[in-house]
Amino acid sequence: MIYKVSYVVVGARHPGAIVNRDTPPQVGEMVELGGVRFEVVEVADLIPPQGDFAYLHVTLRPLSPPSAETP
Fold first, then answer.
1. pTM recorded for the entire structure
2. Predicted pLDDT at 9
């Protein structure tokens, strides 16, 4: 199964990301996007799985301050 994950960041100015993964994200997991570390706080299905694809919405909270390069 391929997981198409839409990451949305709360509490910081970060654009988030859409990423393909081989495993589903889990609440409490640490994720790094653009050099910034985040904690997964929520995972929700966007739509039911379609064939070999699952579509997930993941809410993240920042764990480290963003670098000067992050918009």
1. 0.84
2. 95
